[in-house]
Here is the input.
Amino acid sequence: MVKDMLGRNEAVSADRALDILLNLPLNNKPSLEVPVEEAYGRVLSCDITSPENMPVFSRSAMDGFAVRASDTFGCSESVPAYLRLNGYVKMGEAPDVTAGPGDAVSIPTGGMLPEGADAVVMLENVQQTGDDMIEVMRPVAPGENVIAAGEDIRERDYVLRRGIVLRPQDIAALAGLGITRVKIYKKPLVSIISTGDEIVPPQSHPGFGQVRDINSFNLAGLVMNTGGIPEKFGIFPDEYNVLRDAICRAVESTDVVLISGGSSVGTRDMTAALIESMQKGGTLFHGVAVKPGKPLIGGFVRGVPVFGLPGHPAAVTVSFHNFVEPVIKKIGGVDLQIERNRPAAVSARLVKNISSAPGREDYIRVSLYEEGGELCAEPVFGKSGLISTLVRADGMVMIPSHAQGIPRGEMVKVRIF
Here is the structure.
């Protein structure tokens, strides 16, 4: 341990402390299989590939008429294409009609494309001139307004990668593929040991020099938000043997140990000495160059990370977010590289042009990645009926109604899913 000129332990940098912690031999929790509806917010423990195409049949993305695209080429409002109305498609059933040359088949959104058709003309671009005839006033290209079989997700494609925290759209994609059970990591157990002769339970009336325990409640909530399970061990006096026994029991039964307290130098030194005294244990650092939170102690005892947290609530929260949270997530199986790209909202540089029609707000799905120390946003283009575009995206960019798009290179605000 590096010492300063007065013989005190010298604080390590925040980057160095985190690097030390994340390079520890931290074992992932074992996995368990659960129904897909119970997996929201849990960490996926294996890669998932698609067992089938999605959709399994070509279907319409619009209300309109299924046609052969070639029958509409060159048409316009002044020179419409006239097509025979040859029946309609029922939802949830295979069509019992076909679209031959010069035919049009009425079809709802999501309806199965009839044999012979390769495009759908939107309802608003059609006028019905009789019981069995329509006018098409705008041409369509092959595949237009159609979601082809396998266009969303192809059989044997990777759908989700191990280590992601499952989001609503991820669960939806699994359900759409008929995957009803998934393997997830068990949640890490995190023990919370409150220390201090001055600390009393919240239900007690504190006497002079005493304060109610608040840090353990703060820590319990932080642990749950991080995907762990908090286990409060109780409040312990600043007595070496009593604390040593509590830490030993916590190391034996949980995955991470948090020792809350230690406002005084003496208590902090005793916590460090306790960690050093443990069999197969030792301190990793004693003091980090951050404010608030400098007194943080990091240790490793019998394969379990042990933290001596500062006494002040703000310092506890800062220390937890910067150093404890990544450790809990890593033990819980979270891929931290993916996690870093999914904050609540970020600014990122757009890497491709986005066009938009003025007069409406457009929401464009984007994926995020880091390049040259800068966060970049790449549009995820695709039809709104494709769940895979949501799975591949990290968030959305809004284009204001007065804009005609956003040029490549602009900084955009990304709202994270």
Remarks:
- The first strand starts at residue 31 and ends at 35.
- The domain at 60-147 is CATH 2.170.190.11 (Molybdopterin biosynthesis moeA protein; domain 3).
- The first helix runs from residue 14 to 22.
